[in-house]
Write a structure and sequence with these properties.
globular, 2 domains, four-stranded antiparallel sheet, 26% strand, single chain, HIT family, subunit A, twelve-stranded antiparallel sheet, alpha+beta, EC 2.7.7.12, HIT-like_sf, Galactose-1-phosphate uridylyltransferase
Length: 396
């Protein structure tokens, strides 16, 4: 299936050998005009991912998929996905599963069958969340214990490849390609949010071995959760209380307060503002928010998306120059994630923003979470938000 996602991006959907969806987002010719199409078949001899599996006696058993278990002490859902223990881990360059197919090769165990691509999105081969056909039951008790609540982890996990070149990073893709990535993020947020049972869509990127990345190819991920995640639930609680008390949007008031104060605002464009938050947790942390009140990425208009493609790259450039070692910039290991409105309740008090942060506190020094942070959730910052902001301003 091929459609024009925007006048400048062409979207083409196909299926991999095991049934997972793969989508090309093309912005170059001859593909963007439809004069040519990327390779759509997958020659790998992969079994259908939902085919029955054989037990130790050789008898076929239905696929069960990952499950969610509720922590009775916190009420939080924990995904139990033991199959991820066998996922690909830091493969050699010639076995990179996110690289395009080698020219002339009849077969390779890569996820993308085309010999080149612009941006690609596909369902994760080792997902934490997976909607298995036929498994639709709601929460139930395990082993007759009412405290042990389980349910299928019926969500979806997607991988977003930012470039066919494994030596690139998101920072280096350029504004034109970044715009295509923004379009892919918005498209997938809308599509995943429309799936049955999905309550939240989280778009994020992990970069750097210090973060725990298992593939160095430039890529991000998108999770479609069948529940509202704990951090989002907490932010919704604060937002609802603020609106009930003031009649205003909390995200709007936070942005306006940072703009009035000015000291922690590090980057401004026509449509976007980047600032270090008043109570930053991490050694390097910055938030990016639109000037207009919007709930999620699909709600951004064309001008906001085009501006984001430039502004976000400028922000990433500063982050990659935040630390130096003997006069050489250190590519920053970071996590970045888009906090969007949930699919259902809470959209009226939600406001889109991105949070990017790093565990690097100095060259060759990482912030390890202390006992009170990991064990009690009581955060302690090793620096001040004002110092972080001053360094980011210095790099303008």
């Amino acid at each position: 299936m091929t459609t024009a996602a925007t006048p400048a991006v062409r979207k083409t959907s196909t299926r991999l050998a095991d049934g997972r969806e793969l989508i090309y987002f093309d912005d170059t010719e001859p593909y963007v005009s439809g004069a040519a199409t990327r390779r759509l078949d997958d020659p790998r001899p992969l079994p259908d991912r939902f085919a029955p599996v054989h037990d130790e006696h050789g008898d076929p058993q239905p696929v069960t998929g990952p499950e969610l278990r509720r922590d009775p002490l916190t009420g939080e859902w924990i995904a139990i996905a033991a199959h991820r223990m066998n996922r690909t881990f830091l493969p050699p360059a010639d076995a990179n599963p996110l690289a395009p197919a080698r020219p002339g090769a009849t077969y390779q165990d890569g996820e993308i069958p085309a010999e080149d691509y612009d941006v690609v999105v596909f369902e994760n081969r080792f997902p934490s969340l997976l909607a298995v056909p036929g498994l639709t039951e709601g929460p139930s008790d395990r082993d007759g214990e009412p405290l042990w609540t389980v349910r299928p982890a019926a969500g979806r996990c997607e991988v977003v490849c930012f470039s066919a070149d494994p030596t690139q990073s998101l920072r280096t893709v350029g504004p034109r390609r970044m715009r295509t990535i923004v379009e892919a993020w918005a498209d997938r947020t809308a599509a995943l949010g429309a799936l049955p049972g999905i309550e939240e869509v989280f778009v994020f990127e992990n970069r750097g071995k210090e973060i725990g990345v298992t593939l160095h190819h430039p890529h991000g991920q998108i999770y479609a959760f069948p529940y509202v995640t704990p951090r989002t639930a907490r932010m919704l609680e604060q937002a609802r209380a603020h609106t009930a008390r003031t009649g205003r949007l909390l995200g709007r008031d936070v942005l306006d307060a940072e703009l009035r104060h000015g000291a922690r605002v590090v980057l401004e464009s026509e449509h976007w503002v980047a600032y270090v938050p008043f109570a930053a947790r991490w050694p390097v942390e910055v938030h990016l928010a639109p000037r207009r009140d919007v709930p999620d990425l699909p709600a951004l208009d064309d001008d906001e998306r085009a501006d984001l493609a430039v502004t976000y790259l400028a922000l990433l450039d500063r982050l990659d120059r935040f630390f130096e070692d003997d006069g050489t910039s250190i590519p920053l290991p970071y996590i970045s994630g888009w906090h969007q409105a949930p699919v259902g309740e809470g959209r009226d008090v939600s406001r889109l923003h991105l949070e990017a942060f790093s565990v690097l506190r100095a060259p060759n020094k990482l912030k390890y979470l202390a006992g009170v942070e990991s064990g009690a959730g009581a955060w302690i910052s090793d620096t001040t938000p004002e110092k972080i902001a001053a360094r980011l301003k210095e790099l303008a």
